[in-house]
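re the bet — no i am not wrong, look at it urself. input seq straight from the record:
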Amino acid sequence: MISSERQGAVDVIKITGRLDTEQIGGLAKAVGPLLKPGVRVVIDLSRVTVADGAGLEWLLDVLDEAVALGGEVKLAAATPLIDDVLGMTGVGDRFDRHGSVLCAVGGFA
């Protein structure tokens, strides 16, 4: 499940369940319209249980597109398992990561 909310000038995307091939279509639909010049996005990973290569690639694609538009993407509240996956694959090194959504949103100030 994917939901989004606006916190000030920041869009927060909440992903629940799997960050994998099956979710990519829904993720693209939810995030695509947000990708505008100067976009500020926080992806809340607190409820992600599994991430596969396609899910990690999607994260990198969103980051690349946002940066090309002069924007930024931060990751927040990754579970220990997802944090390990991000670290072991090197994907996490490309992002500004925070322990909570509140800290990530505040990081844009």
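see?? The longest strand covers residues 40-51. told u. also The longest helix spans residues 53-68. so pay up
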